[in-house]
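Check this:
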Amino acid sequence: MSSISSLSPRSLGVSQVSARSRESTAAKLTVTTAEGDKVTLSFAQDTRANFSAGAAYGPNGQATAARSSFRQETQVAVKIEGNLSDAELSDIKDLIGQLAQPGEPKAARSGPALDTLQSFEFAYRRRVEVDLRASQYSIDA
């Protein structure tokens, strides 16, 4: 690709660049307490960004344009089956704090005993997509 400044005064051309990105994240935590209560927390987020710019040039000058957009959707859901005690609620908060910490496997961490909880299931998924494109066309007239 030649730079616009190196083209002859009679050159005609177009250059364009575009970028798109999408990131989706989903997490679901289901906790069963020792008393049989069940709590399900779910989170989903979808983020999209687009950018494009272009220029057309010719013997009479140059025109440029740019456009961008951003969109983010978030969904959060909480389902509680049963009645949670203060101790169960506290243990669930502690569990969420432990799951949110990066690093070593969850079973190897030391922390609160979470005695009021019988079991939990946790799933997390993250996907990132990026698409970049650029082109330039010129004609020496």
About this structure: The mean pLDDT is 87.
